[in-house]
Amino acid sequence: MANFSKSNVPQFSVDVYQNEYLPEGGRDVSAIVTVTATGGGTVGSAVAAPHLYSPGQGPSAAVAIMVDCSGSMDYPPTKMRNARDATAAAIDTLRDGVHFAVIGGTHVAKEVYPGGGRLAVADATTRDQAKQALRRLSAGGGTAIGTWLRLADRLLSSDDVAIRHGILLTDGRNEHESPEDLKAALDSCAGRFTCDARGVGTDWEVKEVTGIASALLGSADIVADPAGLAADFTQMMESAMGKEVGDVALRLWTPVGTTIKFVKQVAPTVEELTDRRTEAGPRAGDYPTGSWGDESRDYHVCVEVPAAGLGQEMLAARVSLVVPQPGGGSAHNLGAQGLVRAVWTDDMVASTSINPQVAHYTGQAELAQAIQQGLDLRKAGDMDGATAKLGRAVQLASASGNADTAKLLAKVVDVVDAAAGTVRLKAKVAEADEMTLETRSTKTVRVKK
After folding, report:
1. What are phi and psi of 35, to 5 degrees?
2. pLDDT at 325 (0 to 100)
3. Tally of CB atoms within 10 A around 128
4. From CA 204, how far away is CA 183, in angstroms rounded?
5. Distances (CA, A) of 260 to 54, 162, 283, 286, 315
6. DSSP β-ladder status, 259-267 and 284-292
7. What percent of the chain lies above the pLDDT cut of 90?
8. pLDDT the model gives residue 418
9. Which of 116, 267, 278, 304 lies most in the core, judged by the most C-beta atoms within 10 Å?
10. What are phi and psi for residue 267, nearest 5 degrees?
């Protein structure tokens, strides 16, 4: 595990935004917890980030790139070439010292480079060897993504590193293994490495690709035109190279009688974390957030407190950040803490006002849900239901200033009145536009300052 010292770990801070006032008998307390990491990696740039290890302790990161090599990657033939070029671009973005492997995925998973059940160490020679090996990649066979993930897990766990990351590219549906097999693979890999997933073209299943990224705390996106793969892979690898701390958990401690109703990430994307809790001692639980570089994320925490009388106040929850240790050892505390409070008052104005951050992200979560439900209803042929849900989505996107999502919605519906949510479904929608809206439906915007 990482050797922590003040010089090589980003500084974490926690800010809590809430209305702590409850009416008499009130029990639900909501808060937005903003977590910020600064002074560590350089996300979005290929500048070498400070390593998370002392000299002689081994590499800071390991990356496995999983490339779909199923038969459909030959249609059109340029798709496989674009995938090879994108993987080469990602390999060029690896910083020296990072361990890496390339996996070719069909109905089985094969080691493309370096082979022998091991990882290569990135330098000028191994990067060149890996790119030579990519030339041997050809399309043929089926798709069983669970086998790709299990091989990536075996390779990534073969070295003692702080950050383990996967990049997965597919162009088709997971037709050569059962959904249960894929779920079992994701369950076994969860918490062991993070993974960004990309669907190329329009013949893949959005819920499969987003489900992989969600389970493994990575990003998901569509690359409708294979020509855009190299730029996307470069950006993904630059982001991975900027990560400084792996396996950070949001730890919530709550007093006796208090129940956690939900915990979800709400920015930069909506991600449900409630069911991913692992117990961390008396009345404390850890919620996984994945790996971090220089960045800020927001979480919505809702707790139910015991009823109390007017004028009373209590600590509803204490939020901290930890890095759990393998084998159940005591977690490394990252030193940042935030408090969620409850105060009972008869001041109706104080107890009924909604904190702006809480209101904003409640709307963003509803926006993501409305898009998903609207698209599902459209596929099921319920055009009235789809119109209502997508109209509500347009209304929410407009009100919150989520311009990117509003643009994507406008490719699926004709907007009559955004503020009122009045829309008409378009008669013809390009498949790529519908898939892009579905894939990016959980992307949120932050509160306008």
Report:
1. -110, 130
2. 79
3. 12
4. 17
5. 39, 30, 10, 12, 13
6. unpaired
7. 88
8. 97
9. 267
10. -155, 135
Query: CA of 236: how far to CAs of 229, 243, 334, in Å?
Result: 10, 11, 26
Cis peptide before 226, with omega less than 30 degrees from 0? no
Tens of pLDDT, residue by residue over 114-143, are 999 999 999 999 999 999 999 999 999 999
Q: What angle do CA 15, 18, 23 make, to 5 degrees?
A: 155
Phi then psi for residue 339, to 5 deg, are: -120, 135
Round to whole Å and give the CA distance between 232 and 237: 9
Tokens standing for residue 49:
């980030």
